[in-house]
Write the structure tokens for this entry.
Amino acid sequence: MTDAFQARIEKTMQNLRRNRMEAYFCETSAEACAQVRALLQKGDVVSCGGSVTLRQTGVYDLISSADYNFLDRSRPGMTREEVEEVYRKTFMADAFVTSTNAVTENGELYNVDGNSNRVAAILYGPKSVIVVCGVNKIVANLDEAVRRVKTKAAPPNTVRLNLETPCSKTGECVSLRKEQPEMCEGCHGDARICCNYVVCAQQRHVNRIKVILVNEELGY
Ligand code: SF4
């Protein structure tokens, strides 16, 4: 890692703490799993947001293990009603584990969500929120975060989810065809996954949100 990149990570962590979110740095996915384990108690009720990062790091396997009461919303054969029930139960969970679409050097988390169960649980409900994030998601500021979602997060997610959106075909948000796109602009079909745009800034509940930065390229 270059000195400049290390300085970016340190600045990001300092500003997360200033914004009353605890920050951790892990060199590897294995270290990140150990950090998540350290933040949980055996028997905790744990839920998670849909996340490639959690799968890549092994955190998903950890939280869905027999050590915890995992609220599983992806069991084969679940009805939509059952999935919705898991979303509602998540508000009572001990911990919600997720990634983020971007983290700024100013110590903000930026997330864009379609169904919005993920951003809802980040904002309120679970006693503890654990965010696992590859260093590839660090951006300078919110403008870069907005652009990151439109170019690096939403397009591959629509491909992964097999959704018919302009960005699933072109690799970037349709809004970027304008010279000065607004944050919330985009496509207008039913498949749109960009519905709620959420910035987590300084928190009222000190250290409810914990951010684990992992020195790997993870997720979208
Ligand atoms: S608004 Fe539509 S085109 Fe733009 S990134 Fe989101 S899903 Fe893709």
Summary: The helical segments are 3-18, 29-39, 52-57, 59-63, 80-90, 117-123, 142-160, 166-170. Residues 111 and 139 are 13 Å apart (CA to CA).
